[in-house]
Amino acid sequence: MVQISENAARLIRKMTQKNGIPDGGLRIGIKAGGCSGLSYTFAWEAEPKTGDHVFEGAEGSRIFIDPKSFRFIDGTTLDYDTSLVSKGFIFSNPNAKSTCGCGTSFSV
Fold it and tell me: Confidence class of residue 77 from pLDDT cuts 50, 70 and 90?
């Protein structure tokens, strides 16, 4: 399971509306790379693909995760930081053994 915080849900709904896909969601994936070995990928999509894990949050927000990526982020909470210093998605990933300083890559 992946949980979506209120802040992340608000941004997801705002961006799906802005991108003209009001029933869509945020695709989250994992790829090799980054300073810690694995990094997160993002894309706005109109609908999930066959086999995707789909999670819903507040305000009808949705995230889509392919099965291969899901095994690395199962149990994660997705948040969104709105501070002036650092805006962006934040992952509280219990599977990450270490993360890089900027928080965009991790190792398992």
Answer: very high
